[in-house]
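Format notes (please read before filing issues)

Several people have asked whether sequences and structure tokens are stored in separate files. They are not. Every record keeps both together, in the order shown below: the sequence lines, then the token lines. Line labels are part of the format and must not be stripped during preprocessing.
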Amino acid sequence: MGQDKIELLSVDLLKSHRRYVKIVDYWCNLLNLQLGWSYILDISWLLKKIDELKLPKGAVIMDAGAGSGVIQFIIASKGYNVLSVDFSDRQPLSRALSFFEIEQINSDRKFDHNYVNYLISLRKELKEEGTSLEKKSIPNKFRQRVNRLKDLCSIAYYKGKAAKFQYGKLKYYKADIRQMDYLEDNSIDCIVSVSAVEHNDHKGVKDAVYEFIRILKSGSPMFITTSATDREDWFHEPCKGWCFSEKSLKELFCLDNPGSNFRDFDTIFDKLKANQEMRARLADFYYRSGNNGMPWGIWDPEYQPVGIVKIKQQ
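Then the structure lines:
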């Protein structure tokens, strides 16, 4: 896999990783899921990294802080077995059960964490708000693409049910990624995480990374996306998450002389803020609340998504 890396996720991924962008759109439409504003960059980057590993079918990949996120289902659709770890209350999506075998473990455990409480309050707000606030119209070229995907998904739904036996299994573990005593050392082939670790304080991130390193097999990688800043670390209150400097990322993820494109931060961030496709992709729920990263659907990124590659040493 080469060296550890810190990679600011450029909107250029929308073109260079177009195949993966299409896969994400396909499964989001099939499972009726919407994405956080940066997730199309995060997930397409992660999927490319997983493919580069060339893992055998049946390999075990952990999705840390998975929630109901789409990447766990895409990974399982590739024939990998997924450990889906999260400390929030969740039930398998009804549509996902049509395609995947999902087992729930430790579902009765309770966790008191600030981010869990934030999610509960946000869901309550969105439920009370309903759908009365109209989403801004999507430009025609993007709407046409969405409509084509919906047509394809209606056909793929039935084909996918028939292909269920080819997919990997998912195990839903209700657990805190900072302490995963139920998992053995050197037992996981790969770990992915989509914008989850930043909802812990710095000690919590370190604890999670140490756990990731413990359970990974020697020579195996973790691919983590989180939030980056070109100044001192700061806490993004609307999303209840930290934005990390390059210095902090190196320390928190135990990176020794990683490859990095932080020198291009300003250019990459300016392109993100100006990108029309990212703006058009903004999910409906952003238009229904002022308590999130894009209040009331106003496109104004305040931090830069970043990908971390950390490889467990032999």
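For reference, the curators noted about this record: The chain has one domain: 5-311. DSSP finds eleven helices and eleven strands in the chain.
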